[in-house]
Amino acid sequence: MKTDSEPDAKAAGPRALVLASTSPYRRALLERLGYPFLTANPGLEEVPEEGESAARMVTRLAEAKARALASRYPGALIIGSDQMAVLDGVAFGKPGTPERAERQLREASGRRVDFLTGLCVLDAASGTAATVCVPYSVHLRTLSEPEISNYVRREQPHDCAGSLKSEGLGIALFERMEGGDPTALIGLPLIQLTQLLRRFGIDVLVP
Length: 207
Prior knowledge:
Layout (H helix, E strand, L loop, with lengths): L8 H4 L4 E3 L4 H8 L6 E2 L14 H14 L9 E11 L2 E3 L5 H11 L3 E12 L4 E13 L4 H11 L18 E6 L10 H10 L8
Parallel strand pairs: 1-2, 1-3
Antiparallel strand pairs: 3-4, 3-5, 5-6, 6-7
Helix pairs in contact: 4-5
C-alpha cells in the first residue's frame, strides 16, 4: 500500500485505487484484498443536512469524500465510506473522550445498535459513481459498570462510532450480531466493495 505522500494515482495507471480515508481500520480492511492502493484525506467536513436520514447522510458523505479527491487522482477509482451508529433513531457518533464513551455504552446496554455504512466507488475519469448503504446490527448484553469502565480503559474506543470496537475487545460486549457483511461494522463493507469494484473492471481475485 502507498500513502498520499507518494506519487499520485495518475502515474500508477488508469485503474489505480485510492481510499478516501486516513482511518487505520478502513486501511487494514482494504489491505485484506491484496490489491495495491493509495490513501488520501478527503478533507471533508461531515455535517448532516436538515431533515436528512442516517442512510441518506452516510451515502451522500461517502460519495462526497470520493469526489473530493477526483481532481487530485483523475485516473483512479476512488473509494469513499462513511458510517453512523443509530440507537432508537438517534445518531451515535464517535465519543472522543472516555466519559462520553462510558455514557454511550450505558445507553446502549441491553439494546440494539444499528450501524449504517455508506460506500461509494467513483470512476474519477468519467465521474460515474456507484453507491450503496450497508446495514449491520449488534445486540449488546446488559453491561455492568465495571465492564463498561474496564472496556473503555483497556480498548480506548474514542474514535469508534458508538464506542463499539468490534475488531477488538468490543466483541465481548455483544449478545449477537445481525447482517450480511461483518466488515461493514468496522467501516468498510468488503463484500459490497468487491462487487462494486468488479463493475468498474477490478477483480481482486484476478491480478
